[in-house]
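Homework-ish question, so no full write-ups if that breaks the rules, but can someone show me the predicted structure for this set?
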Amino acid sequence: MNKKNQNNKSSYIEQINNPNTSQAHKLYLLTHYKRLKRIRFLQILIIISFIAFWEIATYFKIIDSFVFSSPSRFIKTFIKMSMDGSIFYHTGITLSETFLSFAIVVVVGILIAVLLWWNDSIAKVVEPYLVVLNSLPKSALAPVFIVWLGNNMKTIIVCAVSVAIFGNIINLFTAFNEVEEGKVKLIRTLGGNKKDILVKVILPSNIPVIISNMKVNIGASLVGVIIGEFLAAKAGLGYLIIYGSQVFQLDLVIMSVVILCIVATGLYQLLALFERKYT
Amino acid sequence: MGERLVIDNISYSYHNLDGETLAIKDLSFKVAESEFVAIVGPSGCGKSTLLSLIAGLIKPSSGSIYINESSKPLKNTNTNELIGVDNKNNIKEKSPGNKIGYMLQTDQLLDWRTTFENVTLGLEIQDKLTNEIYETIEELLNTYGLRSFKNAKPSELSGGMRQRVALIRTLVLEPDILLLDEPFSALDYQTRLEVADDIWTIIRKEQKTALLVTHDISEAVSMADRIIVLTGRPATIKSIVDIKLTIDDKTPFRARSAPEFKDYFNLIWKELEH
Ligand SMILES: Nc1ncnc2c1ncn2[C@@H]1O[C@H](COP(=O)(O)OP(=O)(O)O)[C@@H](O)[C@H]1O
Ligand SMILES: [Mg+2]
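A: Not a homework solution, just the prediction itself:
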């Protein structure tokens, strides 16, 4: 969607500057872009009013800033934690756990999907297990992982991987099998074996699917990491949220949630950028 | 001139859970070197199955297929082995791409590869990419009007160009026999006539033995030296018609105005009717 918008924008400027563009068409374009601007304006207005209302309501004690925190309070907390660097430490921990889980999910997901594609019997056998594991709420497993793996980063990574990997495998495997039969026949007519089908057709034709899955996986990995940090961590944004709520420091909780929003958006945009570049 | 291809009493059945489908029954014929043979028959009679058998993608349930006489028969020796693909030892020995070039119904160009990379696909698979071959490819692309589209993606090519790329992809593997499975059926009528002319000329120029499956009688009469008419499923031979057109400087397009064209057309038409 983003790609489309960008193309639209450059093509818009091009069309407006083009002397051959008719007046009627220019008018159409202008109306269109006015509407887009209005939408953006409303979006920004909503967030600003929300923050302003929150700040004013706590300032005039309409709502209790001890329970609900307030923009000025969590920003103050942020500044304080930036000074001693601790917020960067915690964000860094969460980010590195997320990237590590994401890498495992992507690589292992592709490997297993390839294995299932390669061997139809294995695929048939494990299919019901995959479906069950995929629909199981992974937060239910997190306590089990702690018991098995201990109160450490291993648990967090396993937890995050378990959130994302089953869906990833199922999606990739389905996409691998949807490759046009004619393309597979082509490779065979050219004398290729199964490995050639995989390398020349299945993988390259599924690069867009793999990348769009990565967008989902990075989000799912972050969710898994936070679940893991809630239960088994001494650092990270999930840890800050749980710790803050236990000691009733809502400023800390809200600030961590806001940073989490930014991190989640940033990661998604990073992958979207990657997608635009490679598809 | 020797026989390029001998089909000796082959039968083939498909097996699936709904039952068994006998697609080809006791079929025999021969194709001589540099001969252009067309195969016509009702749809679903087993024409594509026949080409897959010749290409070695599937093995006959009984009977043998000989290519270049000296070759070993492509016989079904191992019933467990359904298709050659899974059997790596088998592939090297009689890789279908070696002797047989197979042009599928649709061009099946890979979207993410350029014209050039599509042409080299078979060579990559067979590990035959050499500097000389690069030159051959350049020449072929120039000869068949694709020079400026060498680095274009398939989506930028017209239907006729795509079909020519598919043909060159097959030809660079230097097959002894070319199998063409309704290669023009995805094209509109105008393009179809043009591409048929192009491809026929290319095949003649390269002196390839060709087996063309089509359901278009005019196409068969205009292109082939001989037409094999098949019965409905299971495919057996209904009749074989030699085509001799009195026309100078034959191309499929000009062949259509030969005086005998109409008679042949009617003959084949009748054969297919009953
Ligand atoms: N994989 C398959 N399994 C079962 N039956 C098949 C299969 N492929 C083709 N057939 C059947 O075999 C017959 C011949 O098919 P095909 O060779 O594709 O016909 P044609 O190319 O002459 O139209 C058809 O009736 C078709 O239904
Ligand atoms: Mg067919």
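Now go work out the reasoning yourself. Hint: The longest helix of chain B spans residues 189-205.
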